[in-house]
Write a structure and sequence with these properties.
The chain has ten helices and 17 strands. Helix 1 crosses helix 4. It is 29% helix and 35% strand.
């Protein structure tokens, strides 16, 4: 670390244990980037705003930059079978490889992280074109997931801009949280990792009494940056009569990785109505859920008939209420899915819905023969 970078790191550390401005982007490794970008566009309303590939001088990978308000997804596919992306997809199936954080100074953040024990994924680099400039570095996290540390002026500059006249925005505004699944006994290790490297603290802790059904259970701890900009639940299996959804994930993803991405909207009913009209499949819950919910949350201000039709869930905590809904799996392997969430003051994760949600997931597991 040179003296200039060291002084920057000291200045940052004096005001924040690890300054993070928010999620920068999530990069997905997939088998076909064009088709994945088209799915994000037609099903979720993301605009394709950038492209890089052979036509832009990148010979071995095709990538699309997809945007919905503040959300940025990069979907990347290898053009050759021996490329690391192709190997990743062969091993794990389609999934999130990079959960990137926006930071004030990527080089300083990288030096701080590695000094605290983080393993390097790639060293600081600068991408600069006439479209802007990005400084990026990467550190390793659970499984083969990495965290890029990104200082960006505008959009990612190595993407050729695209104008998308097909996408119809569905109201998805920003990434609310990103959930990791890890193997038996690994949850506390990764909670400690985020505390040590980023200075994160624990926001919530759920044990197998909180998250269980007749057949399976899991444990979860939520780490955050203290502001709510970054929230990272980490799940591990717990003992149950049958295989939990976390065990199923780890088996099919072949290790730890991102399980789901929650995206926030100001009106989840409007958003979900559009998503379902676009053909997105969502998890179903029994009609009795809504009978119970009316008893549990009689003051909830919603169109109850519409809510039940759209299969939206609701919960409340000391801060307020939330509405949420979960998609079915996004690919053939039972690994990654989406959550759509509207927060009305609540800071939790729908604890009151855990039983209904996990029973719905178990019904899907049973159909696959994996429960």
């Amino acid at each position: 670390m040179d003296n200039e970078t060291l002084e920057r790191a000291k200045d940052h550390a004096a005001t924040d244990p690890f300054p993070i401005k928010g999620f920068s982007h999530l990069e997905w490794y997939v088998g076909n980037a064009y088709q994945t970008a088209h799915f994000l566009r037609t099903a979720l309303g993301f605009s394709v705003i950038g492209y890089r590939g052979p036509e832009t001088g990148v010979r071995d990978v095709a990538s699309y930059l997809c945007a919905s308000d503040q959300i940025r997804f990069v979907v990347s596919a290898a053009l050759y079978p021996d490329h690391p992306i192709a190997e990743h997809v062969k091993e794990h199936g389609p999934g999130v490889h990079d959960v990137a954080f926006s930071v004030p100074d990527a080089a300083a953040a990288y030096d701080m992280a590695t000094a605290r024990g983080a393993e390097s994924a790639y060293e600081p680099m600068i991408l600069e074109t006439e479209r802007g400039k990005a400084q990026m570095a990467g550190i390793k996290a659970y499984g083969e997931t990495i965290h890029s540390l990104v200082t960006l002026d505008g959009e990612l500059p190595d993407f050729e801009p695209r104008t998308d006249e097909l996408a119809k925005w569905t109201g998805l505004k920003f990434v609310d949280h990103v959930v990791a699944n890890v193997d038996w006994g690994q949850m506390n290790r990764w909670v400690d990792y985020y505390a040590q490297i980023f200075g994160f603290t624990m926001l919530r802790h759920f044990d197998d009494e909180d998250i269980s059904t007749e057949y399976s259970a899991l444990m979860s701890k939520v780490v955050w940056d203290g502001t709510g900009i970054i929230k990272l639940p980490i799940n591990e299996p717990a003992e149950g009569k049958r295989k939990s959804q976390i065990e199923e994930y780890v088996e099919f993803y072949r290790g730890a990785g991102v399980q789901h991405i929650a995206m926030a909207t100001d009106n989840v009913l409007d958003t979900v109505e559009q998503l379902q009209a676009n053909g997105l499949d969502v998890l179903a819950v029994p009609a009795t859920y809504y009978d119970d919910l009316k008893q549990r949350m009689p003051d909830l201000d919603v169109d109850w008939d519409r809510m039940e039709k759209l299969k939206v869930l609701a919960d409340e905590d000391e801060g307020g209420q939330l509405l949420q809904l979960f998609s079915k799996m996004l690919q053939d392997r039972p690994t990654v899915f989406f959550e759509f969430i509207e927060r009305r003051g609540a800071t939790g994760f729908g604890e009151g819905n855990f039983k209904a949600l996990f029973e719905a997931i178990e019904r899907e597991q049973a159909l696959r023969g994996n429960l």
